[in-house]
């Protein structure tokens, strides 16, 4: 599926009676890159989950490539082109790397897993290892590769660098940048590592208590120490 525009209008969502997101609106053009910032607990994961249809929606709408998907459940949203790599790095721990990748193919020929190995050569080296034998970084690579093999038009990356060593973060960022550069998918990137999030993005939004409190270009945010301190919890870039 080619990259698609994502349009979120006045989205309010949460869990049961707990409203988390309030009146969230933004759009990302086809092939665009949006980073979502905000401190812990401000609603970033809930936003990703809401796009995937995993939360309760109270109001608002979501469109992918001009088609309203608000009424669709999670599986139908996946079929319509949304791919989530969750913060929990879901992989099948009892299956090998290669078996995990086959599970992501969604009917594509088996040879397509070469795309995953091209993006993450480390996975080729580990292809006979079980998911449970992988490091955190390798699990992240596998979770990402599996989603990408499904050729989503909108890719949601939820804190992919969390807890990983700098050298692994570099490998992942290089792969995400390569994917973004191919223009094959629209990418939403939730990340606490500010410099990575700003380097990657064309546009940034900041969530605070479930609302968008700032949006703009990465350079504008780099220059805005007050906003960074207030909503991201850092006094500036080092
Ligand atoms: N399953 C749930 N049921 C009820 N409340 C939840 C649930 N998951 C998250 N929340 C609440 O929703 C709010 C936003 O959480 P969320 O995980 O979306 O934030 P976040 O910005 O992704 O934080 P983090 O950076 O820690 O992952 C928090 O107050 C959290 O306690």
From TrEMBL:
Domain ABC transporter: start-end pairs: 6-234
GO biological process: L-amino acid transport
GO molecular function, one term: ATP binding
SUPFAM superfamilies per UniProt: P-loop containing nucleoside triphosphate hydrolases
Keyword Chaperone: no
CDD domains xrefs: ABC_TM1139_LivF_branched
Any one Pfam family match given in the protein's UniProt record, by short name: ABC_tran
Family, per entry: Belongs to the ABC transporter superfamily.
UniProt xrefs under PANTHER family: ABC TRANSPORTER ATP-BINDING PROTEIN, HIGH-AFFINITY BRANCHED-CHAIN AMINO ACID TRANSPORT ATP-BINDING PROTEIN LIVF
Protein name: ABC transporter ATP-binding protein
Organism name: Bosea thiooxidans
């Amino acid at each position: 599926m080619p990259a698609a525009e994502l349009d979120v209008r006045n989205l309010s969502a949460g869990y049961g009676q707990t409203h988390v997101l309030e009146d969230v609106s933004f759009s990302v053009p086809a092939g665009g890159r949006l980073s979502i910032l905000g401190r812990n607990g401000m609603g970033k994961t809930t936003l990703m989950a809401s796009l995937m249809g995993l939360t309760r929606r109270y109001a608002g709408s979501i469109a992918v490539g001009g088609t309203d998907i608000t009424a669709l459940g999670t599986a139908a949203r996946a079929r319509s082109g949304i791919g989530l790599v969750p913060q929990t790095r879901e992989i099948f721990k009892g299956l090998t790397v290669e078996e995990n990748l086959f599970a992501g193919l969604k009917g594509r020929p088996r040879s397509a897993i070469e795309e995953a190995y091209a993006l993450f050569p480390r996975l080729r080296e580990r292809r006979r290892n079980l998911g449970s034998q992988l490091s955190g970084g390798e699990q992240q690579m596998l979770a990402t590769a599996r989603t990408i093999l499904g050729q989503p038009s909108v890719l949601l990356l939820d804190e992919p660098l969390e807890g990983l060593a700098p050298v692994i973060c570099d490998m992942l960022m290089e792969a995400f940048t390569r994917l973004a550069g191919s223009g094959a998918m629209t990418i939403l990137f939730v990340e606490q590592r500010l410099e990575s999030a700003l380097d990657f993005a064309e546009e940034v939004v900041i969530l605070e208590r479930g609302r968008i409190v700032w949006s703009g270009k990465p350079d504008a945010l780099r220059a805005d120490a007050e906003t960074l301190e207030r909503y991201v919890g850092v006094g500036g870039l080092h």
